[in-house]
Automatic annotation (TrEMBL):
Alphabetically ordered keywords of this record: Acute phase, Calcium, Disulfide bond, Metal-binding, Secreted, Signal
GO cellular component, as recorded: extracellular space
Family annotation (PANTHER family): C-REACTIVE PROTEIN, C-REACTIVE PROTEIN-RELATED
Subcellular location: Secreted
Protein name (record): Pentraxin family member
Cofactor note as given: Binds 2 calcium ions per subunit.
Subunit structure: Homopentamer. Pentaxin (or pentraxin) have a discoid arrangement of 5 non-covalently bound subunits.
Gene of this entry: Ptx2
Superkingdom of the source species: Eukaryota
NAD is among the record's keywords: no
Pfam families for this protein: Pentaxin (PF00354)
Cofactor or coenzyme needed: Ca(2+)
Molecular function GO labels: complement component C1q complex binding; metal ion binding
Disulphide linkage map: 34-93
């Protein structure tokens, strides 16, 4: 149970990563991914990388610069411009639904204008899911200068697009619906220099 704990990616740049095991029974037509990050990186870095054998950027949350997030589904992406962080934790949630192609992005409990992405697409179920690196091949192909350095916590993946109430609940760490990946019952494997530590502050 990782309640009130964090993954600390100590080195910059880093070859370390964390493999997440999710029980995906079938392909995803909708999903939401949420996580909290704390970093002083200004270079590009990957936050959440979900690759299939057919598509290395099947789901990717990527931060190319401090004032921008990129949200990929099936190799295509939309960009969300954000205020540059003030050296604090940033909570992001990104959701997508195949039927409408609507991509939602929430930062620190607030929604950004919705965008269109990959309408009618299906996200493959046989996936390598990593924190800390951006996959350019299934489970590998890392570029050290896209690696994450800093702290990550509260990682979740759902097979639904969460409602606005649940998006806000995720930001506030309130009770959440059952998830494919849930921070408090995470099945994971650390590869390299990543340390699990208590969170320094709420």
């Amino acid at each position: 149970d990782l309640y009130r704990k964090v993954f600390v990616f100590r080195k910059n740049p880093s070859d370390a990563y964390v493999v997440l095991q999710a029980q995906l029974e079938q392909p995803l037509h909708n999903f939401t991914v949420c996580l909290r990050s704390y970093t002083d990186l200004s270079r590009p870095h990957s936050l959440f990388s979900y690759a299939t054998k057919a598509q290395d950027n099947e789901i990717l949350l990527f931060k190319p610069k401090p004032e921008e997030y990129r949200f990929y589904v099936g190799g295509k992406f939309v960009t969300f411009r954000v205020p540059e962080g003030r050296g604090d934790w940033e909570h992001v949630c990104a959701s997508w639904e195949s039927a409408t192609g609507i991509a939602e992005f929430w930062l620190n409990g607030k929604p950004w204008p919705r965008k269109g992405l990959q309408r009618g697409y299906t996200v493959g179920a046989t996936a390598a899911i990593l924190l800390g690196q951006e996959q350019d091949s299934f489970g590998g192909g890392f570029d050290l200068y896209n690696s994450f350095s800093g702290e990550l916590t509260d990682v979740y993946l759902w097979d639904v697009a969460l409602s606005p109430d649940k998006m806000r609940a995720a930001f506030l760490s309130l009770r959440l619906p059952p998830a494919l990946l849930a921070w408090n019952s995470l099945s994971y494997e650390v590869k390299g220099d990543v340390v699990v530590k208590p969170r320094l502050r709420e």
